[in-house]
Every structure is written in structure tokens, then in C-alpha cells.
């Protein structure tokens, strides 16, 4: 049965937010619960019935509107309140990114890993072992991108970049999307886009794993693995194919169910667990590598200096990382329709 809009039909210039209901403890489930939103993916309509997106396993690309709608449980359609008459700047900027599709790639586990570190959360008990698995997978994926000379581009990052970089002139704010305010971020905002100034996501919640570590740097220095061990353990973790990762995920999910684990695990408890802390450090190291903050080759670097630099790199990343949930709360957008079967 084809999708039908409840409200206005989607047209050029609209943002699409997707809800995928693919089961308990899946990547999408984690994204929605940790981010506190019903949305786990975003895209936008940049030409007639054509959607631009950064999609897991395929990266940046375009797809026809109707087939893309068919992949989700339901889709929200958001529209700029400014109602610009001409969307050619948005189309042009989107085409700029599409023309450079070989430069970017994306996996949803990277979005999940950043959420895991920058939000305070409480989840069912069995979630801990699965989050470690996803953090390790995100680390391997980022290092694989580095080897292939690519950059990560989260789905919602592509959306807000295309809108906020569509700048006909520096006084024109017609395409601005400013996501909700930074929640007392631990680190200053560092990202600017053209003449628009600073565009922020929610940054680092001070109660989150990353927030607590940045306010207690002695914990980073005392509890983290030495740099040489970090580099070796992360390099040894070869990236899994999508099918192999899914198979391993199903094994972990079955193990959690068989163990009859109950109760909940919080971000503070996750941080205190040594095995989880190793996964956190490996992901932080991978961000430092892909952002050029890691020592090259066998260069000797102070262990403490490197660790602090690595965690600062993740904090900087969090300051300009915007989630689908953030976009849904952008005051410049209003939801005009929902597509359902």
C-alpha cells in the first residue's frame, strides 16, 4: 500500500524525518531512546520528487521520493517557516555535496556512539554489552574511513549543512536552521558555516559520559589505556561487514535474553565498567585519528597530552553534531505532514 500524506504533500525544500520501527535494541531503537526522540534518520527534498540523504552502507546520494518513503514506518515532513520563493540555493548546495559523494560515508553506529558519549541515559540492563559492540564497530568504521581517505557525514549533518550553507548573500537568513540551544555545553562551540555564524546542536550534556570526563580530567589520565595499547587494540579490530555485524549483534541480543538480565544500566554505570571504558577509549581514539589529532606513525607523544587532545576532539565534534531529533525542534521549521501507509 503506498504512502499517503496526512497534511501537505512533500515538495522541494522540505525536510524529511524518518521513524524506523525495526525492533528492540536495534541501532535505530538506541538512537531514538538516547536522543529522546521518535526520529532516527533525516533527509531533504532538493528537486522534484528527489531526496538527498547520507545513508548507511551507501553514503551521500539521491533517491526517488516514493521508494525512500516506503522504507520507514512513518515520515514527518517539515517546512521552513520563512517560505522562500526560490529554492535554487538549496538545490545548488545539495548538488555540491552529491558531486563529492566519493568523499563521504556514513554508518548509523557513528551517530549512536556520539549520542552514547554526549547524552545522559538510562536503558534496560542488557543494553550495556550491545553499546560496547556498537562503540567498537563505530571505531573500526572511522579508522576504515581514514584508510580510504573519506570523511564521516551523519545524515542530519548533511541536512543542516545543505540548508545553512545555502547562502545567496550574507544578509539572507531564509534557509537558516538553528537547532535547539546548547545544554550548558562543557566545551565552546567551534563550528561556523559561512556568514551564518555558529550553528549548534545540543553539545555535551555535563551529566553525560564525556561531560563527566572533561570535568574530571584526572579520570581520563588515571583510567584510560596507554596510547600505544589504544592504537594497537583499535587497529586490530578489523571493520565488520554489515552482514557480519548484524550476525554478531543477533548473538549478543540472544545472549542478553538468555541471561534473563533485568533492571537498568545508566551512563554513569557504563562509564564505571572497565570493559565499557575500553570501548569508549577506542572510539575516542578513532575520532582523534580521523580528525588529525592522533600521532602519526611511531611519533612519540606524551600519553596525557594525547589523551586530553583526543577527548577534546570528541567534544569539538559534539559541538557541531546535530541529530534528527535536534532538527525536529528547530524553531525555523514546522511539521506540515506525516506520511503513513
Task: Describe the SSE topology.
Layout: E1 4-7, E2 15-19, H1 27-35, E3 41-47, E4 50-55, E5 59-64, H2 65-69, E6 74-80, H3 88-99, E7 104-105, H4 108-118, E8 122-124, H5 127-147, E9 151-152, H6 155-164, H7 209-215, H8 217-223, H9 227-236, H10 242-259, E10 264-266, H11 267-272, H12 274-290, H13 303-319, H14 324-328, E11 333-340
Brief summary of the model shown:
The chain has helices spanning 27-35, 65-69, 88-99, 108-118, 127-147, 155-164, 209-215, 217-223, 227-236, 242-259, 267-272, 274-290, 303-319, 324-328, and strands at residues 4-7, 15-19, 41-47, 50-55, 59-64, 74-80, 104-105, 122-124, 151-152, 264-266, 333-340.
Q: Strand arrangement, largest sheet? A: 1-11-6-2-3-4-5
General form: globular
Strand content: 15-25%
- Report the count of strand segments: 11
Which parts are unreliable, with pLDDT below 50 for 5 consecutive residues or more?
178-200, 296-300
The rounded Rg comes to: 20 Å
**Strand and helix order:** EEHEEEHEHEHEHEHHHHHEHHHHE
Round the mean pLDDT to the nearest integer and report it: 78
What oligomerization state is this entry in? single chain
Structural class based on helices, strands and sheet pairing: alpha+beta
Helix percentage: 40-55%
Q: What distance lies between the first and last C-alpha atoms, to the nearest angstrom?
A: 6 Å
State the helix count: 14
Major sheet, described briefly? 7 strands, antiparallel
